[in-house]
Amino acid sequence: MSKLLLKYLANFPRSVKGVLLLCFDAVILGFSMLLAFAVRFDPASLEHQYRIFSNGVWVLMGLQLLALMISGLYRSVLRHAGTELLVLLLRSVLLGAGLFALLDLMLEEYRMPRSIIVMSASFAFLGLLSIRLMIRWIVRLHVVEPQQRENLQRVVIYGAGSAGLQLFESLRQEGTYQISAFVDDNPKLQGGLLRGKSILSFAGLQTLHANNPLDSVLLALPGVKHEQRKKILQQIRILKVGVRVLPTADQLMRGTADASQLQEVD
């Protein structure tokens, strides 16, 4: 239910998501102000002090929200935000606090202790950053990554030797494949793990494919003889799954193919 709700919210127009985030920010700014007062004043006089400086409190919060809006913070895409998010937030909070500090100097009715301005700005920065990092993490975990996994091709690498390992590292960096396991005909390797992936026999490959169909088998055996390669390909064709192979040693020697270039097999 929560995942469906997150997907529903993720599909909202950016303007709607911006308004929702603005509401969250207003709440965070309010809590930051209360926390600053709680740190600065004695609990017994907290309510009294808040009444004295209430005009300044609302103006400071309004200026902080205005600074957040004019900084372009609500136009950035949270799920892809990086260090620019940190810079935007810091600039916005400093701008809001700076504007209020100028107002504080000019108008008597909006006077507020400097410590409150500094502490509320600090707490606001931490709170605003935390809520964005939390939203980003939740969206990435429950929306973005599941969508990416759905689009990944499920494959196994046939060959748990050095060529298979190199192919695994290359595909992992590429990010378009979900590597389910390795397959190898060597009984000594079968049942082991390579980079956290199980090394299966051909029978294990059949079981894996039957339980959760694969998109392709990637043959990483550049050094095997032609007859052995042909035999392996005949076995794989039983599964009715796509097959791609790394170039043979002969092709690599002649320079007609790249070591990480996968070739389709008809």
UniProtKB/TrEMBL annotation:
Transmembrane spans: 20-40, 52-73, 85-103, 115-135
PANTHER family, alphabetized: UDP-N-ACETYLGLUCOSAMINE 4,6-DEHYDRATASE, UDP-N-ACETYLGLUCOSAMINE 4,6-DEHYDRATASE (INVERTING)
Keyword Transmembrane set for record: yes
Keywords, sorted A to Z: Membrane, Transmembrane, Transmembrane helix
Organism, as annotated: marine metagenome
InterPro entries referenced in this protein's UniProt entry, alphabetically: Polysaccharide_Synthase-Rel, SAM-dependent_MTases_sf
Protein name: Polysaccharide biosynthesis protein CapD-like domain-containing protein
